[in-house]
Design a protein that fits this description.
By secondary structure, the protein is an alpha+beta fold. It is built from 11 helices and 5 strands. α2 (46-69) runs antiparallel to α3 (78-94), α5 (120-133) packs parallel to α7 (164-245) and α7 (164-245) packs across α11 (386-397).
């Protein structure tokens, strides 16, 4: 089943909760398009500001350590120390641009870190940012060039505390750790977006399945109404034909036939209005079977069939005259009882089911189907829940309401109220 809309795109994801400040701006831009600013870039969250400020402090701290080590280098004259510190200060300031130009900043830091010892912290931050925001091929080229220049750097400016071999080993381990950590953060973000996309797709598929179930329920209701309408029109035609061929019939018979014609025409008009209201002239596939549909009067027969199938069913029918219930209301009540008994037979075999019907004109008709927990183990029977969706659609179209869910005793209950007046 397709989960895209008519425009060919996934529906817009729901707004993010109030904890969006704890997410990176790159994630919020994917999850919430409204978080993108006028420039087309995601707005910085509170978390972004904290992380950026921390990266800036790290770059400054490492730069200060490098500046403190400059006087200990015998091959570094004072003018070069000044240039080194100026380059380090500019590199630390450039850290604030790491989100906008991660690749450009990382590439620029390669020669700057080679010339300036105090720019090492900014180079570390730039390489980590590149690993987080860009694919691995860019990270591999940038870190590879930086590692290739490392032996020359420590040969020209040896570390006073570490040997040449240890300096190279430390630089290689630090570069590998930064790249690995950055790629891990990138993978985690991509996983979060993938899970969000899966959840959105699953929610969309569920909504489409429910919509399809509602459409199928409307079509089934329309077919039932079509059958009832065909039955009424057939009855009307029979009585009208009798009057046509027997114009000399007794007055009583003429009055009775005229009353049947009037009543049948009125009920046919009501059924036709219901069909139009359900499908809005979209019921072209209805079959003209001409068979009447069950109403509330057929409820006892339904209960008897269930008992013959081995179910324990108790019917509490408090409606004194089921014939006075409108056909559409009685038909909906019958279908609710039928679906409730079917579900009880599948999911609670052996449990005693109680069907209760009550109501008077003006107050409406209520019907409920209850069953306690099954007495033994129940085999797993898969269910799509579309039957309950269809019942909800039926009750809504009839102007009533439908509820279902577990009961207080651990069983299950479906109940509905339908207008009767």
């Amino acid at each position: 089943m397709s989960i895209v809309s008519d425009t060919g795109h996934l529906p817009k994801p729901p707004p993010l909760p109030g904890r969006r400040w704890f997410l990176p701006s790159a994630i919020t831009a994917e999850l919430d398009p409204d978080s993108v600013g006028r420039t087309g870039r995601p707005k910085r969250t509170a978390r972004d500001w904290i992380v950026d400020f921390t990266c800036f402090l790290v770059a400054v701290a490492v730069g200060l350590l490098g500046a403190d080590a400059l006087p200990k280098e015998p091959n570094t004259p004072y003018p070069l120390e000044v240039v080194d510190q100026w380059l380090g200060a500019l590199a630390c300031a450039a850290v604030w641009l790491r989100r906008r130009w991660p690749l450009g900043l990382a590439v620029a830091m390669v020669p700057v870190s080679f010339l300036s010892n105090t720019a090492g912290g900014a180079g570390v931050v730039a390489l980590f940012t590149l690993a987080v925001h860009r694919p691995f091929k860019y990270v591999a080229w940038t870190s590879g060039v930086s590692l290739a220049a490392t032996p020359l750097f420590y040969w020209l400016r040896p570390d006073s505390d570490l040997s040449y071999i240890l300096s190279l080993a430390f630089a290689g381990l630090l570069t590998g750790a930064l790249v690995g950590w950055g790629m891990f953060v990138r993978s985690k973000r991509q996983l979060m977006l993938s899970l969000r996309d899966r959840a959105l797709r699953a929610e969309t598929e569920s909504a489409l399945r429910a919509e399809q179930a509602q459409r199928l329920a409307r079509e089934a209701i329309a077919r039932e109404m079509h059958d009832v309408l065909a039955h009424r029109l057939t009855l009307l035609s029979v009585h009208a034909g009798a009057l046509e061929f027997r114009p000399d019939a007794p007055r009583a018979e003429v009055e009775r036939a005229a009353g049947v014609i009037r009543e049948s025409a009125h009920e046919a008009l009501q059924d036709l209005r219901e069909i139009i209201g359900v499908l809005r002239a979209s019921g072209d596939g209805a079959e003209e079977s001409g068979r009447p549909q069950p109403t509330l009067e057929a409820l006892e027969g339904l209960v008897s069939e269930s008992r013959e199938a081995g179910m324990k069913v108790t019917l509490d029918n408090r409606v004194t005259d089921a014939g006075t219930v409108p056909a559409s209301v009685g038909r909906t009540a019958y279908r609710i009882a039928q679906e409730g008994l079917t579900n009880a037979r599948k999911h609670a075999p052996g449990a005693e089911v109680t069907v209760t019907v009550a109501g008077v004109p003006g107050d409406g008709l209520t019907i409920s189907v209850r069953n306690p927990p099954p007495p033994g183990d129940v085999p797993h029977v898969p269910g799509s829940g579309q039957g309950l969706i269809g019942l909800t659609e039926r009750a809504t179209l009839a102007g009533g309401r439908f509820e279902h869910g577990p009961g207080e005793d651990g069983g299950f209950q479906v109940s509905a109220w339908l207008p009767w007046g």
